[in-house]
Structures are given as C-alpha cells and as structure tokens.
Amino acid sequence: MKRVSVLGSTGSIGLQSLDVARKHGLDIQALAAHSSWKKLEEQAREFSPRMVCIYDEKHYGDLKNALADTDIEILCGMDGLCRIASDSDTDILLNSVVGMVGLLPTLTAIESGKDIALANKETLVAGGNLVMAAAERKGVKIYPVDSEHSAIYQCLQGNSMNRINKIILTASGGPFFGKTKKDLADVTVADALNHPNWSMGNKITIDSSTLMNKGLEFIEAKWLFDVTPDQIEIVVHRQSVLHSAVEYEDYSVIGQMGFPDMRIPIQYALLYPQRIECPTKRLSLTDYGTLTFASPDLETFDCLAMCIEAIRKGGAYPCIVNAANEVAVGLFLDGKIKFLQIGELVRAAYEHFEYSEITSYEDVIAADTAAREFVMNSVK
Ligand code: MN3
Fold first, then answer.
1. Residue 99 has what pLDDT?
2. Which of 141, 295, 338, 379 lies at a C-alpha separation of 20 to 30 Å from 46?
3. How confident is the model at residue 186, as a pLDDT?
C-alpha cells in the first residue's frame, strides 16, 4: 500500500484526500495543517502518522500538549513542511497547502526524489519553469490533483506517441457567469463564496468567482503539459461534468467526465494508475440531460485575461499576477476592498513591473514580495 503524506490535511482537498485514504486504507506517514491544530490532533489520532506539522508556530505548543500521550513527532513552520516533504519513508506527497507557501515544499520533495500529487496551484504558477526542470532532472512524477488537469492527464494516457493539438480547459464560469462589470460592482463576500458546483476553500472560491482560478489553471496547464498558450482553449461549461479534454492531431477530442467531486481526481493522483471504487456519487448523464459550452467573457473577468497575458509574456509575470491576486483576495475577504478591485489591482501590478526572468527560487520570492508590496501600497 502506498505511503502518503499530506500537506494541508485540514483544508478541503486534505479532508477529501483523507476520505480516500480511509476508504482504501492508505498508509499515512505525515500530516500538516496551517493553524487548525485541534482538527490536526483528531486526524493524527485516527491515522497515526509518524509526524505532524503545524505551520503557524504559535500553535506548536497547543499541538504538542494535545498529542503528548503519543509518540508522534511534532513539527512546525516551513522547516516542518520541508522535513515532511523530504521524508524518505513517504512514496507520494500530496501538497494541498494554499498559496506561495507550497512552492518550497514542492521543490524540496522533488530534490529528494519523491512523487507529488499536486493541488497547490502557486507551485506551478509562480515557479513552473523551476519545478518542471527539477522534476525532469530528478525523474519525479507530478500527478495533478486539480480536476481539470487530472482530466487532461487522464486523456493523455496511452497516447505518448501522439501530439496534442490543443487542450480544452473547461471552466464552470463561477457564480457570476453572464454578469457584466456593472452587475458586479456591489458583490458581497457571501455572494462570491456561493459557488454553483464545487465545495472548496475560501481563497479558491473567490478565485473561481473572478475566474482568476481558471487563469491560474491556464498557466499550470502550460507547464504541466508542455504546450504553448495558443494551444489552450478555455470553454465555459456550467455543469462541471466534462472536466477537460484534449484534441489530438487527427481532431479526435478525448475528454474525461465524472460527477463533480474532487475525490475522483485526488484518488487518481494517489493511486495512479489504478482505478478502483471511489467514495463519491456516480455520474448520471440523463440526470443532466443537457451539457452546455460557451466562450469565456474576458472583458468582465479581467483576472483571467491578465493570467493569459502574463503567461504569454512569461518571466516573472505569472508570479506577479498570482501574488497581487493573493493579497487582493485577502483584502476583499477582510472587507477592505470591493469585488471589482481584485481585478483592477491584479492589472495594476501586471502593468507596473518591467519584464524579469525567473531562474531561481530567490527570483520567485523577490517577484512575489515586490508584487505584494505594490498591492498593499496601492490600497493605503
Ligand atoms: Mn480546477
């Protein structure tokens, strides 16, 4: 049985990955959470990992006391995440932490030759060239956990001899599909958190409402599948049943469908190449009756437009738009800015910075930090 460690185990992907682990009796080696130490304690008692890590160091003492009667090793901070990422008794690391924090553990896992089930978007968005080059050098596999990228990965199986014409990346369109900027001027946090098809964490749910999420996925797809931006077409598909598709040179389009439940792609990443029963609902196409497809509205959803421009220009731009968005979403969730300001701030950051290359982890951090400061200073 595969030995698995989970970074971000108390988040939405983490909880669903533990459902999969529970169902199939996976051997959990380590668990890490941001700050939910009570939930992490519960998980540690259920899965008996060798190590647990609480990222937020102020809860280290709480967790240590809570698990004092066990022989589980308690870690904290980035050091703890990287310690888990480099653990030699883990076969696959599920990285589902939120934000830029995920990049260093991913690079650490790759350097120690460990396969990764990747749910942390920022890893590829901010450091795509570094991560893919390191993975190739180390012969490490990156299994995408995101439903769209998992779908594409699945559509590529058995086709290593064939060239991709294009990738069809599907988007649900989020809660504001069909709206104009005028309609979105007074959107509240609660409106934006009300996603039609997927149940996810706050950051990604806001990103889905602005379509930033699809922009990040566009950038990820470019890196994961080694295609050009021109080879990726975004198609809005409201039902989230077709999770993405690949067109080959013969114009045959192969897609992957399923009930919209993240446990399917999580399980595929953790158990690849096995396909065994998943703890989810089955897809009934006749329950849906109709599946619809439309082009995205790049005018209303400028975060998506910015991401596409950023990856076309390359260099640090994807990292910059990602960092600007992360700060802007935080400000929106805290009630400090309006919904449409998220896109405006991302655009302002994109336009502010000159082109620069990313050749090291330090370059990523420098671009990321500069973009964050730029956004914070813009709203003062
Ligand atoms: Mn997705």
1. 86
2. 141
3. 94
- Cα(147) to centroid of ligand 1, in Å? 5
- pLDDT value of residue 201: 80
From the CA of 181, how far away is ligand 1's center (Å)?
A: 23
Q: Calculate how far, in angstroms, residue 198's C-alpha sits from the geometric centre of ligand 1.
A: 9
Q: pTM surpassing 0.90?
A: yes
| CA 170–ligand 1 middle distance (angstroms) | 9
Ligand 1 centroid–CA 345 distance in Å is: 23
Q: For residue 218, how far is its CA from the centre of ligand 1 (angstroms)?
A: 10
Q: Which residue ranges of the chain lie beneath pLDDT 70? A: 199
Instruction: Kindly tell me the sign of the dihedral angle through the C-alpha atoms of 332, 172, 295, 321.
Output: positive
Which domains are seen in the chain, by residue range? 3-144 (3.40.50.720), 149-312 (no CATH), 314-380 (1.10.1740.10)
Task: State the Cα–Cα distance between residues 205 and 22, nearest whole angstrom.
Answer: 26
Cα 90 to middle of ligand 1, angstroms: 26
Q: Answer whether the bond into residue 229 is a cis peptide, omega within 30°.
A: no
354 phi and psi angles, rounded to 5 deg? -75, 160
d(CA 138, CA 294): 40
Q: How far is the CA of 64 from the centre of ligand 1 (A)?
A: 35
Task: Count CA atoms closer than 13 A to 79's CA, side-chain side.
Answer: 5
